[in-house]
Design a protein that fits this description.
It is a single chain. By secondary structure, the protein is mainly beta. The chain has three helices and 14 strands. Strands 1, 2, 3, 4, 6, 10, 11, 12 and 14 form a nine-stranded antiparallel sheet that branches. The chain has a five-stranded antiparallel sheet with strand order 5-13-7-8-9. The longest helix is centred in the first third of the chain and has 19 residues. The protein starts with a helix and ends with a strand. The protein binds 2-acetamido-2-deoxy-beta-D-glucopyranose (3 copies). The site of one 2-acetamido-2-deoxy-beta-D-glucopyranose has 4 residues, from loops.
Length: 260
């Protein structure tokens, strides 16, 4: 009888914790030996992942290494993956990223983790519907220098593709191969048609973007619901391709839901 009461009380406490606890996830790949990082390993770490490719994901000295395949773009060239995370009106994340010492910058591409809101609009052909947004990071080679920029799909963006708001990192000089960059992202949903959401990216502690934003205009689509992992070349057009395989390394992913 006492045991039954204890079980019931414990269950009630757990149910209560479940309803108030905020989602949190940290992955550092430290307990893996060198070798393939398969879809099932990714699922055991992330909970869910879509679009994984075993042949492009390795553990290398306790880092996750993604291969960008030669002569390919978008999903063919790397990983376009997503993890379902609990709906939240504010999330932040951190990760470390390093381009291999022989990395071919080519024109550029998507790099690392990001957040998806509502319908999670991406791709340059999405008509503006106010029903979704995404925050991702790109690297870009303009022929003179190479930098990161924010790549943002949001309500009211100027063109068919995402906005970068003219924000670049570093502000002068180029990204360096073989160097670790610490990326911090923060997204807060807006309400109604008010630009009271927020977008922030910091790189090695320096602000790349930090401003209020109108993500969505439909409150039923305002919440953050996907963690994206997009690492690939492109853009579209052959000038985004490379004729060599290249590697990008990741470490210390941490994702935190700040509010429901
Ligand atoms: C969101 O994440 C889930 C789980 O990984 C995935 O099945 C779904 O395709 C993702 N949605 C988008 C738009 O990325
Ligand atoms: C908002 O999204 C919901 C769910 O998809 C949809 O039913 C509704 O029509 C949308 N509202 C507007 C104003 O587009
Ligand atoms: C990841 O975090 C660990 C523990 O804080 C730290 O020792 C390591 O240097 C970090 N990795 C990178 C690439 O900064």
């Amino acid at each position: 009888m006492i045991q039954l009461v204890v079980v019931i009380v414990l269950s009630l406490i757990l149910i209560d914790l479940g309803s108030t606890q905020l989602y949190q996830k940290s992955i550092n790949w430290d307990n893996y030996a060198n070798g393939q990082y398969s879809d099932s390993m990714a699922k055991s770490d992330f909970g869910s992942v879509s679009g994984w490719h075993n042949d492009r994901a390795m553990i290398s000295n306790k880092n996750l290494r993604i291969t960008l395949r030669k002569n390919a773009l978008s999903g063919e060239s790397g990983i376009v993956s997503a993890t379902r995370i609990p709906d939240g009106s504010a999330y932040e994340l951190d990760f470390d990223v390093r381009f291999h010492s022989q990395f071919d910058w080519s024109r550029g591409g998507k790099v690392g983790f990001g957040l998806g809101i509502g319908n999670r609009n991406t791709g340059c052909n999405v008509p503006f519907d106010g029903a979704g947004g995404t925050l991702r990071l790109m690297w870009y080679n303009d022929g003179k220098r190479v930098y990161f920029y924010p790549y943002v799909y949001h309500a009211g963006m100027a063109g068919p593709c995402g906005s970068n708001f003219g924000k670049l990192y570093p502000s002068s000089g180029s990204l360096e191969k073989g160097k670790w960059y610490k990326v911090h992202m923060y997204v807060k949903s807006n309400t109604g048609s008010n630009a009271n959401g927020h977008v922030q990216i910091k790189i090695n502690g320096d602000t790349l973007i930090d401003q209020s934003i109108l993500w969505t205009t439909n409150d039923s689509k305002r919440l953050i619901s996907n963690l994206s992992f997009h690492t690939f070349r492109g853009g579209s057009g052959d000038h985004w391709k490379s004729d060599v395989d290249s590697y990008i390394y990741y470490d210390n992913l941490s994702v935190r839901q700040i509010s429901k």
